[in-house]
Structure formats: C-alpha cells, structure tokens
C-alpha cells in the first residue's frame, strides 16, 4: 500500500484559500487519490477523489501533477466550519484493499 | 448525515464485560467495513463484508472481536472480555462497488470507554 505524508497541522484565516499537499512517492498505476474530512466525534466524510490532472467539485479541487507522486487539496475561501482533520489516502478505487488512513492534517481556521 | 447509522453512539463498560455495536449501512450498499480510531490517530481497518461474507480481517481483530452481517444488511461487532485498550471510536462504513468504482461512506461512530 502506498504510504502518504501530510503536514500535521495548518492554520488559516477565514476567507483564504487553503492548499494541503500530500506526498505519495510509491503510488501504483492503479491507485487513486482520495481525500476525507473528519470533524470531532464524527466519521470521516468523503470530499474528493482523482487519478490525474485536476478534479473539482462543489467542495474542493484536487490537483495531481503528471508524476502523481503528490497531490494538493485546495479549499477555496475557508470558513470556521472547515476546521477539521483532512486525510489523504491512496489506494485501488476498486476496493481491493481497505482504506489506510494516516494521521491526517489538522486544519484550524481562525476568524 | 451519510445514511449510515450506528448504535449506540456512546458506551461505557467495565473491564471484562462484553459489548455489541450495531451498524446499519445505506440500504443498497453491498460492502460494509469496520474501523477503529483512537485519539489523535486516523481510523484503522478491522474487517469488511461483501454482502454476508466476511472477506478480510485485520491483525488488529483479536479473537475477542467478532463481526457478523447475517443477512447482508446490518452488521454487529462484538467485543468480549473488554480491556482498557479497547477504548476507542468504532466506525462503520458502507459502499456500493460497481465495476471498479467504490466510495466508502462512514457512520457517526460508537465511542467506547472501558473502565
């Protein structure tokens, strides 16, 4: 399973764009990159998933360079409610392997 | 609310007691996963089912742990002879695997405290 490395924590002011980078140097050809968000005392919530280039949905954008050894989750104009832990996961989207979570990145949004 | 429910949300028990947790997945989902999460860590995989078949168990799932999904719908996770080290959040997730695509949706978790 490809291992991921993320910053332990990040701080941001409200209204700013936040970019969280994840390194996954050993990503396999079949692996997809998935990001989850987790609030205290809740289960993780799926945010976005991608394989290459750029993926955008109503919540976030995911940028993946050509070598796929890293990815960046971009949260536009964060608010206090975006304070959470963000997990980057790499794995076979087909579900042949269970999700492997690291410690994630704790994002604190300040007013 | 993802549509995955777990019961109870909180459980306090004394060491040595047995506890059972229930997970109700999204109705059409064929896969159901159990994870455990301790403070400051990400969730750790325990086991998963495809329909009623238990397909994989983690080494974390000691012989005191047992999981069932009898009719391919809800699932239960039982911990026998609980130990203080079992204190954690137990998370359930469900997914619908179609071809090569699968996204897991998590429930709110059951927080267990073993005294």
Throw out a few tags for this protein:
heterodimer, A: 111 residues, mainly beta, five-stranded mixed sheet, four-stranded antiparallel sheet, 0% helix, B: 115 residues, seven-stranded mixed sheet
Structure description:
The complex is a heterodimer of chains A (111) and B (115). Chain A is mainly β and 111 residues long. Chain A contains no helices and nine strands. Chain A has strands at 9-13, 18-23, 31-38, 45-50, 53-56, 61-64, 70-75, 84-92, 105-110. In chain A, a hairpin with a 6-residue loop joins strand 3 (31-38) and strand 4. By secondary structure, chain B is an all-beta fold. In chain B, 0% of the residues lie in helices and 49% in strands. Chain B has strands at residues 5-7, 10-13, 19-24, 31-37, 44-50, 53-57, 65-68, 75-79, 88-95, 105-106, 110-114. In chain B, the strands form two sheets. In chain B, strands 2, 4, 5, 6, 9, 10 and 11 form a seven-stranded mixed β-sheet that branches. In chain B, strands 1-3-8-7 form a four-stranded antiparallel β-sheet, with no helix packed on it. In chain B, a hairpin with a 6-residue loop joins strand 7 (65-68) and strand 8. Chain B is globular and about 45 Å long. The mean pLDDT of chain B is 93. The A-B interface holds A 34, 41-46, 49, 87, 93-95, 98-104 and B 2, 4, 31, 33, 35, 40-45, 48, 56, 58, 89, 91-93, 95, 97, 99-109, 111.
């Amino acid at each position: 399973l490809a291992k991921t490395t993320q910053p332990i924590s990040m701080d941001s002011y409200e209204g700013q764009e936040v970019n969280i980078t994840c390194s996954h140097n050993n990503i396999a050809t079949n692996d997809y990159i998935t990001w989850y968000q987790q609030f205290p005392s809740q289960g993780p919530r799926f945010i976005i998933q991608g394989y290459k280039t750029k993926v955008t949905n109503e919540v976030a954008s995911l940028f993946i360079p050509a070598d796929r050894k890293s990815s960046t989750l971009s949260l536009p104009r964060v608010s206090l409610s975006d304070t959470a832990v963000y997990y980057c996961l790499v794995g076979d989207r087909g579900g042949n392997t269970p999700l492997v979570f690291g410690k994630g990145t704790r994002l604190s949004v300040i007013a | 609310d993802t549509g995955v429910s777990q019961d109870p949300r909180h459980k306090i028990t004394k060491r040595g007691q047995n506890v059972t947790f229930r997970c109700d997945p999204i109705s059409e989902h064929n896969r159901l996963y159990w994870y455990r999460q301790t403070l400051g860590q990400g969730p750790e995989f325990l086991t998963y089912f495809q329909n009623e078949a238990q397909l994989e168990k983690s080494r974390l799932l000691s012989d005191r742990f047992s999981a069932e999904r009898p009719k391919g719908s809800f699932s239960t996770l039982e911990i026998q002879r609980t130990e203080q080290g079992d204190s954690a959040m137990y998370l359930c997730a469900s997914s619908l695997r179609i071809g090569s695509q699968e996204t897991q949706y998590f429930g709110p978790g059951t927080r267990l405290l073993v005294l």
